[in-house]
């Protein structure tokens, strides 16, 4: 498993706009890490650095404790281990059919035809889109396109999957399908890093959250801790997750014990209230 980290990253866009400001962030193997912040806080820029698409003005990205290289061979190896899925799937879909698109990366690795086929079939099955293998990519829905792009990334067998706003534009059914697919990847050991401004998704799904503001990590820790701090959320131009807000209010009114962990799902929250009511 890859150990990935950013150390002192600084990056400015043309015009002097600071996107990353001496940013430090360690990513633990196997975790689901949310990069949470408002638009313009530096989330996407960080992801582009973490797979070598952008090179910092200062600082470094480290793979397994060593500075990552930017020559052609180093970048190829880096991106085979750390895959990036952009917010707009049309930016990454270009082949005629879903199967052709998913097979593109493995073919470029020079793998044998049988190995490529096995990887593509497995990736399509993982994302529950095997039935779309022969469909032209322009005939897919947004959710199907997003899963096709993720399948293409998975066919490269990365250790880390970087996702930019993975649920943006999806309906509730599409979100459930996508999160179920990502959960299966985590169970097999894939590290998931996703950039988002969705505080409710972060609270329900992330193991850890890095709260972003002005190109810096201003807090990093379990969602129930980082997202409870009103001052930090105000600085990041975000609100408290609805479920966390309800749980904290219930705790303040004695409806939930102070020492118990905050429920992360609606069902768990309702069960906690019911248990408290029965005990009372």
Key structural traits:
single chain; 280 residues; alpha/beta; Rossmann fold; 2 domains; six-stranded mixed sheet; 11 helices; 10 strands
- The order of strands across the largest sheet is 6-7-8-3-9-10
Give a quick account of the main beta sheet: strands, pairing sense, barrel closure. 6 strands, mixed
Q: Write down the domain tally.
A: 2
Backbone structural class:
alpha/beta
Measured by DSSP, the beta-strand proportion falls in 15-25%
Report how far the terminal alpha carbons are from each other: 48 Å
Description:
The chain is of the alpha/beta class and 280 residues long. It folds into two domains: 4-239, P-loop containing nucleotide triphosphate hydrolases (Rossmann fold); 241-280. 41% of the residues lie in helices and 22% in strands. It contains eleven helices and ten strands. The chain has helices spanning 43-50, 72-81, 98-108, 113-126, 142-154, 172-187, 199-205, 223-226, 230-235, 242-252, 266-279, and strands at 4-13, 17-27, 32-36, 58-63, 66-67, 82-85, 160-164, 191-196, 208-213, 216-221. The protein has a six-stranded mixed β-sheet with strand order 6-7-8-3-9-10, sandwiched between helices. The chain has a four-stranded antiparallel β-sheet with strand order 2-1-4-5, with helices on one face.
Describe the structure in brief.
The protein contains 11 helices and 10 strands. By secondary structure, the protein is α/β, with parallel strands linked by helices. The protein has 2 domains: 4-239, Rossmann fold; 241-280.
